[in-house]
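#struct-pred

JT: dropping the chains for the assembly here, can someone run the whole complex?
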Amino acid sequence: MFLQQLLNGLTLGSVYALIALGYTMVYGILELINFAHGEIYMLGAYLGIIFLAFFTAIGLTSYSLSLALILTFVLSILFCSSYGFTIEKIAYKPLRNAPRLSPLISAIGVSIFLQNYVMLTQGATDKVFPNLFGAAGFEFISVRMTYLQLFIILTSIIVMIALRFFIRKTRMGKAMRAVAQDKTMASLVGINIDTVISITFIIGSGLAAVAGLMVAMYYGLVNYFIGYIAGIKAFTAAVLGGIGSIRGAMLGGILLGLVESLGASYISSEYKDAYAFVVLIIILLVKPGGLFGKAELEKV
Amino acid sequence: MVRQNWRRFKTVTSSKFKVLSSKQQRYKSLKPFIIALWLSLLFLPFKGLNAALIFFVVSSVSIVLLRYLLRYKKLLMQGLETLSKKTRYSLFVTNYSLPIVRYGLLLFLVILPFLVRDYFLDVAVLAGIYIILALGLNVVVGFAGLLNLGFVAFYAIGAYTYALLNTKCGIDFWSALPFSIGLTTVSGFLLAIPALRLRGDYLAIVTLGFGEIVRLILNNWDSVTRGPNGISGISPPVILSISLGKLSYYYYLVLIFVLLTVFITKRVYSSRIGRAWIAIREDEIASSVMGINITMYKLYAFAFGAFWAGLAGAIFAGKMQFVSPESFTFMESVLIVCMVILGGLGSIRGVILGAVILVLLPEILREVQLYRMLSLGAGLVLLMIFRPQGLLGGKGVSLRC
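RK: done, full complex below.
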């Protein structure tokens, strides 16, 4: 029972971690809580359903399921990244030098807009993601793991390793770290800030798309308001790990997933959504910097 | 020789510039269509090819129009500025305005029930409740500069306190009102104590979390709040054994409370406490150096804002005679924040205007009600980009924190 819940928490947590990475990257660079990030995740889930339905309609799914799945993933990621890129250009870029609360309110506006945009175009009812993997799985020391869970955990791990490699080893990753440290200095040494910010949004949105698709597969149901609550939870995960820190977001996401699934099974499942908020409030009170964050000095 | 070279240099550079500028010109004239194409490409998977084509045409036309308008942005802004200055002296009641305007407006509000249908009166009562709420939030966001995204939680606490006291213990409106307001004020204090240690955007998230927790409790604590079914059968307030259940009576009750709210918030705004709030909003460090106890005054702001939310909640419960968690969602919080920002942070007249606009607009535009939230979201973004101080906000008010 305990181990089973641990596994469920790990699955959920790896999804939260993927979304949290987007929050943490944007916060690290722009110091902005990107409220619309949860909505990108929701878009990812919807796009997955739409593209898969399209491939089923043209007969690709029955020809080769894995090809259709890969194409669905690629297209959803591409579209979500484009959405992230566009949102940054329209809603955040003009406010780059505005007071701190302006972009936050603008982000809330984008979030409401996207929710209603999806509701109006796709309808307010739940959408069903076709069950591709079934309930097939394997037993492992009294724990039942479905292939889907394995797939989710493995995909998240691979994506996170790739991201870490990108940020640690590549030129663009180096530029991103530089911009996160000091925007003015980075621009003085010849880094194009706008490009770096765009890339950050593109990568973060791509990660959210992966998370959205996997959650759609896992639960099988998608609604237009899943983004809001998932966004808040992922933000909590990012704060838990220390906002701005990449490995913090990964660890925070997994911890939050564990807290939620253990809390739901041992305390009360009705308040499942409240645990994230309680965790958030406790961390902000006890250790506002998070697990890996640095104590922040207030700039005058 | 030199002259020749100079001429050559001039022709070369000028031709070069010409080429560049014509290229730029072409790109500039094509840019709206490129943007529209990009947006309709993004739109494509959601509604199919036909809709995307229509979307392309509509968006390219509107972007061209918008660019045309932006050319006159300065002029437009100046117009809005003079308009807001003018409205300050004519439409809205001030010390400078003629007493005729002031009493005329009051008289209009008093005789309103005799002029309009019940439906409109219903909207007016709702607008009044939102005005109280928005003025309360204005204290927190506009005066003290603390973004509270969970304001609806206080509203919910006020409404549920009255609902529970009335249905479970049979206490009438006037005896329950102090409890409603008191409990919300205390919960405002309790939330503020931990939350105020946080910086601006973190504070926003924590208050949002608080709002969500309150809603979840209302939704799940079945034995007390009856969960999603809500509480029905709340009795309306009674004055001198006359029940105010009738709409026109209730309208007067709300009107009196709105006037009271305006009067008190205005007084507080220009008091010592109000000036301290403004100082904190503009520069926290400087004001603490001047000897203002920042935490204390922020606490006051939170509690004072919550006070009005409690009042509005009790009025709401008395009017609807029914409360359920559905009325207290995050969207409601956002709507109140929109009212404050649309009207102008910190401007009492502006906030009233914002509340009235956002309540009336969806009622007038019934057919496009589906698009209400969509346009609200887009409106927030546009407002932040083009006029962050709101419709009637002065230049001095900023969103700093």
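JT: nice. The longest helix of chain A spans residues 2-30. The radius of gyration of chain A is 19 Å.
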